[in-house]
C-alpha cells in the first residue's frame, strides 16, 4: 500500500536561474526535507546534508517515524566541546550517542546542528523521531548548537570546580553564543515555523523529567538566549 502524507511545505524551484512566481505545493515528506534545505540556502545560510559530513549509517530497522512537529528543543554540544571543526564534532557526537552503553541511539539524536559560523548541518533525517530529550521526543525537533554554553560552576562536579578555578586565575573564558550562530538559529526557527505548526520552543532542561546532563543543557548562557528567542518569535515555553 502506498503511504500518503499531508504537509504545509512549499518548494520553490529555480528555472534557468529565475525563481518562478508559481509555488509548487508538496504532499511528500522527502520533498519537505528538501524544501527546508532550499529555504535555508535562499535565506543566505550554508546547509550541509548529513552525507557531506560523513555521517554513519543509521539503524534503519529501529528508526521511528515522526512528523507533526509542534515544539523545538535547543541543546548545546556539552561541556567537553567548544567552537571548532563542526563535521568532526558531529562525527564524535554521533559515535558517542550510538555507542552509549545500555541506551545506544539509532542515529545522532538531533535533527539539526548549527556551528559557531552559522552553518546549518543536517543530523537525523527530519522524517524520523529524534533521541535528544528524555522521554519527550515525539513531535519535538532537536537543534544542537556546537558550543559549550554553560557557565563555569554549572554541574557542581569536578569539571565545574576545575573550570571555576581556571576562571579565577584568568585561564578560562565563559563562552557566549556567537553572533553568526545566534542569527542563524533565529532564521532557521522561522523557516521551520513555515513547515510545521510550531507552538513551543525550549532549552533541553526546560522539558519535564530530564536527567543527568539534561538538567544542565543548554547551559545558563544557552538558556538565556532561548528566552530571548522565545520573546522574538512569540513561541511558548514547553510543559
TrEMBL record:
It comes from the Bacteria. Residues 45-197 form the Peptidoglycan recognition protein family domain. One of its GO terms (biological process) is peptidoglycan catabolic process. GO terms for molecular function: N-acetylmuramoyl-L-alanine amidase activity; zinc ion binding. Belongs to the N-acetylmuramoyl-L-alanine amidase 2 family. This is N-acetylmuramoyl-L-alanine amidase. It comes from Chromobacterium sinusclupearum. The lineage of its organism: Bacteria, Pseudomonadati, Pseudomonadota, Betaproteobacteria, Neisseriales.
Amino acid at each position: 500500500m502506498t503511504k500518503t502524507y499531508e504537509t504545509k511545505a512549499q518548494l520553490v524551484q529555480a528555472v534557468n536561474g529565475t525563481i518562478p512566481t508559481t509555488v509548487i505545493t508538496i504532499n511528500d515528506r522527502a520533498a519537505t526535507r528538501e524544501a527546508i534545505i532550499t529555504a535555508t540556502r535562499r535565506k543566505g545560510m550554508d546547509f550541509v546534508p548529513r552525507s557531506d559530513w560523513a555521517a554513519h549509517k543509521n539503524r534503519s530497522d529501529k528508526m521511528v517515524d515522526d512528523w507533526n512537529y509542534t515544539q523545538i528543543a535547543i541543546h548545546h554540544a556539552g561541556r567537553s566541546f567548544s567552537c571548532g571543526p563542526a563535521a568532526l564534532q558531529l562525527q564524535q557526537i554521533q559515535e558517542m550517542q550510538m555507542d552509549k552503553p545500555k541506551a545506544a541511539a539509532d542515529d545522532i539524536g538531533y535533527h539539526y546542528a548549527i556551528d559557531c559560523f552559522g552553518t546549518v548541518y543536517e543530523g537525523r533525517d527530519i522524517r524520523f523521531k529524534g533521541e535528544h530529550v528524555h522521554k519527550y521526543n515525539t513531535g519535538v525537533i532537536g537543534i544542537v548548537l556546537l558550543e559549550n554554553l554553560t557557565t563555569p560552576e554549572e554541574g557542581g562536579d569536578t569539571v565545574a570546580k576545575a573550570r571555576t578555578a581556571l576562571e579565577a586565575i584568568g585561564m578560562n573564558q565563559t563562552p557566549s553564543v556567537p553572533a553568526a550562530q545566534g542569527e542563524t538559529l533565529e532564521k532557521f526557527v522561522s523557516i521551520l515555523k513555515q513547515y510545521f505548526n510550531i507552538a513551543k520552543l525550549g532549552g533541553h532542561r526546560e522539558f519535564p523529567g530530564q536527567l543527568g546532563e539534561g538538567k544542565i543543557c543548554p547551559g545558563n548562557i544557552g538558556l538565556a538566549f532561548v528566552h530571548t528567542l522565545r520573546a522574538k518569535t512569540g513561541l511558548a515555553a514547553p510543559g
